[in-house]
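Q: Could you predict the 3D structure of DUF4265 domain-containing protein?
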Amino acid sequence: MTALQVIELFAGTSPDGEPVVERLQVRVNEDDSCQLVRSPAFIKGIASGDTIKVNTEKQEFELVKRSGNLAIRVFCRGDSAAVSDRLTPQLEKLGGELDLESPRLLVYSIHVSCGFATIEKILDSVCDGANSVWYYGNVYDPQDGQTPLNWWQDILKPE
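A: Sure. Here are the predicted structure tokens for DUF4265 domain-containing protein:
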């Protein structure tokens, strides 16, 4: 098995205009592509298990293959532990994983085959009124944040 490595990718700009990078754990494949071990907190368009090609000089990436996982980010006004205590077991029952937990942020990965309606019902029931809000990290176009990427249509196609 390939050892884990850490890469840095451009995640955006800070309020003062400085570039922000996110460090991600990956498995490097024989062709130098990288498979994400966890979904990122701030980089949009990718999730755990996705394979990317990285341009290390520019800290940019090109998506090679999707894993079928959704990246879900939950931002909390208070301590995220209370939200995690309620949300994590419900998502784990569907095969989801808690990829990152910090005092105000939770990041989950869950396969799209669990169904958007099922996943959103759980997220809404826990986050509604809990001083938290959730977003998909890889469902909408990173450029406008509104246009669905529709990558899941091939995965969810009936055989």
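Q: Anything worth pointing out?
A: Residues 4-65 form one domain.
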